[in-house]
């Protein structure tokens, strides 16, 4: 049973194709200089699927999800997002970035802009929405993440949990088809973790396609269709959360779980 405190009613933009695949990675390799950071990554994510990615620090989790919206470039293999292959074509990259929302560990809000301005910036400049409409959409999502009263403050005046909910609302204002989360709760004080996880749970319940790098095992058990375990640049195991946490298949998964549980 999913329990959520906040309920975001997400209205995803219509998929451009009927293809049930949201993201496909085939034989993806990436190097930072001579360091082989992603090794033969094969991963297919269906629309509406929720994946939790875990693994030791430095295993390539951030790099992998950053490749999906081309914040990092892969050197070998194919990445297809919403039917568009990621190549050097800037037009296509921009198209994908419009449809793929990303939430980072450290929020990455513009500190000198108000919450409302943070939320309306991309809809106005990228989606060419009128300011008034963008503000209505922004208030709708601020309401959903339960902080409409913070709209006119700057991010620095908000708690970490509130800032992260602003970051989630900011992504939602662009009606993303896919949401990427990179350890969204790991920089938060413990008492703020739940409010952000609740927001993510309700997003999951709305049917959003989600890839979450997270070590929040309760969250993984609650929402993940599959858990992806990475180690040293490889996908070592893909499993259901129930099986991954109770009887992981791989020795390296067992070792990792023994350290974090
Ligand atoms: P994770 O998110 O699992 O902790 P990362 O994807 O951040 O792992 O990093 C994987 C490895 O790549 C680490 O060894 C890290 O130091 C290295 N790395 C990450 N970003 C860069 C970069 N821009 N240049 C060189 N090495 C990097
Ligand atoms: Mg990381």
Automatic annotation (TrEMBL):
One of its GO terms (molecular function) is ABC-type amino acid transporter activity. PANTHER family: AMINO ACID IMPORT ATP-BINDING PROTEIN (PTHR43166), PHOSPHONATES IMPORT ATP-BINDING PROTEIN PHNC (PTHR43166:SF4). It holds the Pfam family ABC_tran. Transmembrane segments: none annotated. Residues 23-257 form the ABC transporter domain. Signal peptide: none annotated. Keywords: ATP-binding, Nucleotide-binding, Transport. Belongs to the ABC transporter superfamily. InterPro entries: AAA+_ATPase, ABC_ATPase_HisP-typ, ABC_transporter-like_ATP-bd, ABC_transporter-like_CS, MetN_ABC_transporter-like, P-loop_NTPase. SMART domains: AAA (SM00382). This is General L-amino acid transport system ATP-binding protein.
């Amino acid at each position: 049973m999913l329990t959520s405190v906040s309920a975001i009613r997400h209205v995803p933009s219509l998929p451009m194709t009927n293809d049930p695949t949201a993201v496909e990675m085939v034989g993806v390799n990436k190097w930072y200089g001579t360091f082989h950071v992603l090794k033969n990554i094969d991963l297919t994510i269906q629309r509406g699927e929720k994946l939790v990615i875990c693994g030791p620090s430095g295993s390539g989790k951030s790099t992998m999800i950053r490749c999906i919206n081309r914040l990092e470039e892969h050197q070998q293999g194919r990445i297809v997002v919403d039917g568009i292959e990621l190549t050097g074509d800037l037009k296509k990259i921009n198209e994908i970035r419009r449809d793929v929302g990303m939430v980072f560990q450290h929020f990455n809000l513009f500190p000198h802009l108000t919450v409302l301005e943070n939320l309306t910036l991309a809809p106005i400049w990228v989606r060419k929405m009128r300011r008034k409409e963008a503000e209505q959409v922004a208030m709708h999502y601020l309401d959903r993440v339960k902080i409409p009263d913070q709209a006119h403050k700057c991010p620095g005046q908000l708690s970490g949990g509130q800032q992260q909910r602003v970051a989630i609302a900011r992504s939602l204002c662009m009606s993303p088809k896919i949401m990427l989360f990179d350890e969204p709760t790991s920089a938060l004080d413990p008492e703020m973790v739940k409010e952000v996880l609740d927001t993510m749970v309700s997003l999951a319940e709305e049917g959003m396609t989600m890839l979450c790098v997270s070590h929040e095992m309760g969250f993984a058990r609650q929402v993940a269709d599959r858990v992806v375990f990475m180690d040293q640049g490889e996908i070592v195991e893909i499993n259901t959360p129930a099986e991954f946490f109770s009887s992981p298949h791989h020795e390296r998964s067992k070792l990792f779980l023994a350290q974090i549980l």
